[in-house]
Amino acid sequence: MLHVLPHRGGGAETYIDVLAAIGGFEHDRIALSAGRSPASAAASLPLRWPRVAHAARRADLVHAHGDVAAALALPLLAARPSVATTHGLHFLRRAAGPWRSLAERALRAVVRATARTLCTSQAERDELAALVGPQLARRLAVVHNGVELAPPPDAAERAAIRAELALADGDVAALFLGELHERKAPLVAVAAARAAAQAGAPVVLLVAGDGPQAAALRAQAGPAVRALGFRADPTRLLAAADVFVLPSTREGLSFALLEAMAAGLALVVSDGAGNPEAVGDAGVVVPAGDSAALAAALERLARDGDERRRLGAAARERARTHFSRARMLDGVAAAYAAALP
């Protein structure tokens, strides 16, 4: 099995880590680009392509991750048994004008070339089905990302982690966990947390991650906002938090959000694609980009512990029933079986 990534890092890597549990495959991965930027891709792709093509020829099955990687790897997908996962259709959703037309043509070709194109949300599947038409839409399948339920931390463990983070007993910790990128909208979360704190709510926003907006975020850090940088211990941060915040403009189906659900945190998310489908009625959904609405939700939850606990229990149950790791693995395994002769 060869997994083709646009670049290293990101949610697709987590996805592939999970797929290692599917028996009967040796999972290798390779990146088309040496970095995330278009300039890096343009410079490195021609140099890396021969190695990618050689690896694909040796593979029994090629699995492309993301609409850009699938489009670039189209000759490899057409030549071998293959599947693709859309992971949020990020290029298609942000493209306009000629780039939009190019993305649409490429995705039609990807769906035609692969035995199955896996969508991590129903929203992606509906968007792609409208693009490719009813005949090709039969090759689309929704396979939600999946997580394991986290055991609840005991009181002593939670208290110790909160002490490390300099959280007082009365602080309500809201956690943003992810890349500090414009589409994730970490600065919207910062503005909301500061507004809620100024209104008297005991909100402290913990921001864990790195990315292009890291410097802007650090400049706004203060009593209500803690910039933690990249952290390799997300499970500990989830144990310390009370609320999970994800104000992104678009997602596939965020693993960080699902992990927060599995940990039993109250959720406040934007209505960006993917988020409402994940939380259902187990969280608070606000308009994307509306820091005032996000601030109001944070203020309300900070003052209402019973509501936080109710939403957290509902989120954990939704993770158990809708987004289990077993369901994810079964769905992807079925796609692999359809692709292989």
* Secondary-structure element pattern, one letter each: EHEHEHHEHHEHHEHEHEHEHEHEHEHHH
Total beta-strand segments: 12
Structural class given helices, strands, pairing? alpha/beta
Total of helices:
17
Tertiary shape: globular
Major β-sheet strand ordering:
2-1-3-4-5-6
Helix content: 40-55%
Report mean pLDDT, rounded to a whole number: 95
Beta fraction of the residues? 15-25%
In whole angstroms, the N-to-C terminal distance is 14 Å
Q: Main beta sheet, described?
A: 6 strands, parallel
Radius of gyration: 21 Å
Question: How is this structure best described in words?
Answer:
By secondary structure, the protein is α/β, with parallel strands linked by helices. The protein has 17 helices and 12 strands. The strands form 2 sheets. The chain has a 6-stranded parallel sheet with strand order 2-1-3-4-5-6, sandwiched between helices. It is globular. The protein starts with a strand and ends with a helix.
